[in-house]
């Protein structure tokens, strides 16, 4: 299964029988294809910290224990164009080392290649955020930055990037 890493959008999708799911450092997105013309009143969606349940027109589409915990109060679902349900879950653990390998505990696992691409993407996202923070710190300290734009969208990572890549927090400033 091929799942291209779309640098700008940050999407490494994992295909499922009902649609796809993907993740960022902070969120997990679930996209479910539904019959055209589906109305919101046809949808029953329950989002809890560790569980998700979705049925459409009385038919169960998705149900089970999530791979990891989420912030239940921040989970949302929308019906788009009456043919796509998008569920957005906010991860409780938001570091690059928290790459979900499956949507549910024992279902909808990404194959090893897709997992690798997801981990690379989350690591690049972490590097991008750290570069932005460094730039802000530099600006606040009136430090002239040599690189005005830190753009990692075309970057490639080789080596050890598991668990979010190397930890630079111990480096002296």
Automatic annotation (TrEMBL):
Keywords: Acetylation, Centromere, Chromosome, Cytoplasm, Cytoskeleton, Kinetochore, Phosphoprotein
Residue span, CS domain: 14-104
Protein name listed in UniProt: NudC domain-containing protein 2
Organism: Bambusicola thoracicus
Pfam families: CS (PF04969)
Subunit composition and interactions: Interacts with LIS1.
Subcellular location as annotated: Chromosome, Centromere, Kinetochore; Cytoplasm, Cytoskeleton, Microtubule organizing center, Centrosome; Cytoplasm, Cytoskeleton, Spindle pole
Record-linked InterPro entries: CS_dom, HSP20-like_chaperone, NudC_fam, p23_NUDCD2
């Amino acid at each position: 299964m091929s799942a291209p890493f779309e640098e700008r959008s940050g999407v490494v999708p994992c295909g499922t029988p009902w649609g796809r799911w993907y993740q960022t450092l902070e969120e997990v997105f679930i996209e479910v294809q539904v019959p055209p013309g589906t109305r919101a009143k046809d949808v029953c969606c329950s989002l809890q910290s560790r569980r998700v349940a979705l049925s459409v027109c009385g038919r169960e589409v998705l149900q089970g224990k999530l791979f990891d915990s989420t912030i239940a109060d921040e989970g949302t679902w929308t019906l788009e164009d009456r043919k796509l349900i998008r569920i957005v879950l906010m991860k409780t653990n938001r570091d690059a080392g928290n790459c979900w390998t499956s949507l549910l505990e024992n279902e909808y696992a990404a194959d090893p290649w897709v997992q690798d691409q997801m981990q690379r993407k989350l690591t690049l996202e972490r590097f991008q955020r750290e570069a932005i923070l460094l730039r802000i710190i530099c600006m606040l300290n009136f430090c002239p930055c040599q690189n005005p734009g830190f753009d990692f969208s075309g970057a490639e990572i080789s080596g050890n990037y598991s668990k979010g890549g190397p930890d630079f927090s111990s480096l002296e400033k």
